[in-house]
Amino acid sequence: MLTSEIKLDQINKFQQNLDNRKDSKVVERAVSHQGILASSEDFKAESNMHPVFSIDLSTGKVADQKRSGRCWMFAALNTMRIRLMNTFKVGDDFELSQNYTNFWDKFEKANYFLENVLKTADQPLDSRKVAWLMATPQQDGGQWDMLCALIEKYGIVPKYAMPETFNSEKSAQLNKFLNLKLRHDAAALRELVADNASADKIAETKETMLNEIYRMLVYTLGEPTTTFDFEYRDKDQNYHIDRGITPQAFFKKYVNLNLENYVSLINSPTSDKPFNKTYTIEMLGNVVNGRQVKHLNLEMAELKKLAIKQLQHGESVWFGSDVGQSSNSQKGIMDTNLYVPDELFDADLAMSKAERLDYGESLMTHAMVITGVDLVDGKPTKWKVENSWGEKVGNKGYFVMSDEWMDQFVYQFVINKAYLSDDQLKAQAQEPIVLNPWDPMGALA
């Protein structure tokens, strides 16, 4: 392969080409003063994304994850609170405690990380798997199956039973020092393995580490709730109280959701992931021996049909996407036609969905909830989305997603198995193919 440095005559040629463009100075002034997005925004997209939908579920007041990365958790709990709103008529501002599940997620992730440290202790520090582990021992993000694993073990509670703290709402400090602690512990465990320490010694040391981590979490997030009184007034102003209930009993009695019925479906059109096959990701999870992360890969047209069917039956849809692509959070619009930077720069910026995944341009970064869809002649044109960034963005916290945006930047849905076809159920039951830890389908929302 021939290689060469940039030459001065090339630069002169490039500048001359630019000078010959009649609009170059106009574009330069606009972009340098207003930025790329504002200069390339197509205002027609805003009128096309009018927030009216033929199917529109009532889901209550939008929650706010503040300065934390717990969108997957907020989105999942938002799908569950609808059941309490519909069945028990709790108020529109009712929320389930995100801090409660956050506490147990942090604690379980710490144990999951230490177990993976021991599994890879025979590998050199510069091996790709060990380097991947140490890059981020734990973080706020997660996936649907990981939340199911937490709820199956610990249950859930109303928000007032374990409210937010400084560290749950602003998680940077906790993540910094928890990851410092985990890397410190990783070094100690790897040294024990290298010194051929006994299994009992390693287990004793790990228990001491977990004890210290538990203490850190209680100091920062509060002591986890074990029993509480479920007390509320319904929308008809009737008073209710259920005394001394546990988080597990609360989930079973008031949410009453069989989590086994809800499965993860993905759209990954890359050559390494044939459709109608299931996949899992090595070293991705939180609860050791808990629910496995498992995805069934389907074509997007099939996913849309399933999402519409679930909405028609009154159930919202948890989904994962790359929210930073072609979106305006203040206006609450996600649309591939919102910005046209390729026209602005007169440069080819087009990539297929598969290419974006393969070359690191896109992956799942954020989880939200689909609560409505606009069907025209039976086909979706736009979707209503409940976000978790509070009411100051979008339409009181709700966004509009174009159908084309869904095609390009949505990667994951959670669907009730009742809506899957027989062939899809058979495919979902397959033993999953194990993907590398760094696979984009292992990204945490």
Automatic annotation (TrEMBL):
Keywords recorded for this protein, A-Z: Aminopeptidase, Hydrolase, Protease, Thiol protease
Any GO BP: homocysteine catabolic process
Family classification: Belongs to the peptidase C1 family.
InterPro entries referenced in this protein's UniProt entry, alphabetically: Papain-like_cys_pep_sf, Pept_cys_AS, Pept_his_AS, Peptidase_C1B
Matching PANTHER family: BLEOMYCIN HYDROLASE
Higher taxonomy: Bacteria, Bacillati, Bacillota, Bacilli, Lactobacillales
Main subcellular location: cytoplasm
Active site: 71, 366, 387
Subcellular location: Cytoplasm
GO cellular component: cytoplasm
One MF term in the entry's GO annotations: cysteine-type aminopeptidase activity
Organism: Lentilactobacillus farraginis DSM 18382 = JCM 14108
Record protein name field: Aminopeptidase
Pfam families cross-referenced by the UniProt entry: Peptidase_C1_2 (PF03051)
